[in-house]
Structures are given as structure tokens and as C-alpha cells.
Amino acid sequence: MDLDPVLSDGGDSAAAVGRSICHTGCGRPSRVCLCPYLPRSPLPTSTTVVILHHPHALRRNPLSTLPLLARSLSNLHLLPGRRLASSSASLLAPPSPNPVLLLYPSPGAADLASWCRSTPPSARNSPTLLLLDGTWRQAKEMHAASLPLLSSLGVIPVALPVDSGVDGDSMFESELVVKKEPHKGCISTMEAVARALRLLEPEGKGEEIEEAMLRVLRAMVAFQAEHLQNRTVKPRVTMRKKKELRREEQQSNATLM
Predict the structure, then answer these.
(1) Could you say which residues form the signal peptide (predicted)?
(2) I need a surface site. Which of 34, 53, 138, 248 has the fewest CB within 10 A?
């Protein structure tokens, strides 16, 4: 998770620090190392978390929370791809009656909190939680491409409950917004997993796991906010339409004639 171009302020010493990477821990530049905030060892969960992530999610998104998730949870599986392959069926077909939940805001998705309340503990023991990681457009395409396999496996679509009383860009905590999102209510993959585990894990344990994960995320957001405050942004050159440029060129040629 290399943020060198973002964190360097142009000075030689800052650039040198920016190039120092924490290879043995979080994998981030040493200047923004998150190792002190990560759990000492990956947290065990009764929920199996499976994340289908777009091939570009890590390579093109320096703010991806997947590397932090991988170091925070022991029962986690990361699957790169644009759709779920049939080879993933064994991972998503746990022994009955263990349910497989797709955390994705589709029109027919059930509120996860309501689902937990209405489902007996014996029917939701050791669930599998599936998420799609990518841009919203990529996630939509991944969902459509994976829908035939998901339907055949009897996957249950669910969504996180929205707290309408919370102000800000996030539907939970405004200070947890990692980057500018396309619309209100978007949260990072790591936050989505943390909020879901709070509901799915046994009472008491879920809250502890959620807080441990959010502690890492808060530190990451604080580093990013500090950088943005100190960053000098160059003014963007105004883009001009081709028709306008062509019209000016024609007027210039007419004047010369």
C-alpha cells in the first residue's frame, strides 16, 4: 500500500522518508505506519469473511483497506476477480444450516440487523459473509456477473442498517470517511466488515472486534486528513471544449485572411 506520491511534499528528506516502507508489518510507508494500531495477532471470528475484489482494487487504489483487513482477521479469504468463479462454490457453501450472506445494497437486500433479530441463533451459526470490493461501478458489474452462481448457492442478500440521525458523508461516523465517495452513505470495505461483524458475532465479542478494526481505520483516516491539510494543490487547468477551440481557430484564420 504505497502512498509515496501522495505523502511526499517535494523536499529531499521527506521523499526519502516516504520511500521507507514497513515491509514486515502493514506494508505502508514508514511515515504512516499503522502497525501500532493493528491487533497483535489476527482476530479470530466465527464468521467466515470472503471478499471478491476487483483485480485493480489494490494496484490502482492506494487507499484500499484490504491489506489492513488481511492483517486484522484470521478467518478471511480474498478472491481477486471480476466475478465469482465456480471454483469458489466450496468456500461459499458451508454445511447447512450455516447461511451465506452477501453484503451488497441491492433492492431486495434485507436489513442485516433485522435479519439477525428474526433468525434463531441456531440458523445463523458460523455464517459466511461475502463482500464485493471495487469502485461502485466495478462492484455493480461484479454483482451482475456473479448473480447466476450466487442464486444457485442460495446466498442471502443483506445490507447494513442506515442511521439517518448521523450527519456527514458516512452513515456511521464522519471521521471514518477514507476518501470522497460518490454519494452519502458510502463506507470503506473495512468499515462495512467491522459493522457487520458487530451484528453477526456472539454478543459482546462482536463489539470488541468492531472497535479493534475501527481503531485501525481511524488512524488511517487521521494520517490522510493530516496530509490533505498540509498538501499544496496546484490549480487545475480549465478544460476547454473542442468546439470552442475550433471556433477560435476559425476566427483567427479569418482575421489573417
Answers:
(1) none
(2) 248
List the Cα angle 218/37/223 in 5-degree steps: 45
Determine the Cα–Cα distance for residues 71 and 62; give it in Å rounded to an integer: 16
Q: Which of 160, 146, 154 is nearest to 99 (CA)?
A: 154
Residue 77 to residue 84: CA distance in whole angstroms = 13
Residue 195, CA distances (Å) to 23, 153, 154, 175 in order: 29, 24, 23, 15
Cis peptide before 182 (omega within 30 of 0): no
pLDDT in tens, 44-76: 999 999 999 998 866 656 667 888 899 999 999
Q: Which DSSP string do the residues of 24-47 spell out, in sequence order?
A: TTT-SBGGG--GGGS-SSPBP-SS
What's the chain's Rg over C-alpha atoms? 22
244 by DSSP, 3-state: which? helix
Percent helix, percent strand, percent coil in the chain, to nearest 5: 45, 10, 45
Measured in degrees and rounded to the nearest 5, phi and psi for residue 133 equal -115, 125
* DSSP 8-state secondary structure symbol assigned to residue 166: -
